[in-house]
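Subject: complex prediction, re-run

Hi both,

The earlier run crashed halfway through, so I resubmitted it with identical inputs.
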Amino acid sequence: AQSVTQLDSQVPVFEEAPVELRCNYSSSVSVYLFWYVQYPNQGLQLLLKYLSGSTLVKGINGFEAEFNKSQTSFHLRKPSVHISDTAEYFCAVSGSYSGAGSYQLTFGKGTKLSVIP
Amino acid sequence: GAVVSQHPSRVICKSGTSVKIECRSLDFQATTMFWYRQFPKQSLMLMATSNEGSKATYEQGVEKDKFLINHASLTLSTLTVTSAHPEDSSFYICSASTPSSYNEQFFGPGTRLTVL
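This time it finished cleanly. Structure:
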């Protein structure tokens, strides 16, 4: 079974400061890892994903994440945040096979990033 | 590419009525669609998984007779909340994937259901 732990439920940070949102996972199989962002009353938008290869993954909006297999982590970082980055961020790991070539995703509980002007 | 739409975006209904939510993949064929429920300030809870042309697989604790899912084509899945009650009020989100999407799911914008 897969699980995802997002260690911080809320992260306040001043505008233009760096931020790290933490994510740890457990899985008994090879993993694909994802970070999604959700703005209020909207669906989820993919920020970045790790499938294989380089452990440093770059995504949209200046975000990046590093896959660390030994620490089972996939922390999300941004060197300088903007007000527009205020949103909920979800880490997810691929899970059980759903059939037809697709897999379920297991989500963390989310981290609310609040950027302070 | 990989756009998923949901309709309606917001619906208010009276207790006891049924509500249908549509999820469409606009520019790709979705072999699998997922339905999630999200309570305020919480994560997504997977309700069911549906593969085109097959019966949906429901997660433990989700009433299949209350939440009817149909995935009759590669671009459309519907979720019908039957005899809705106030406790069914929630944000419902669908997602879609294909074998070539490498486990990535493409999410719809969500539907806010309020049952009075």
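Chain A has a mean pLDDT of 91.

- K.
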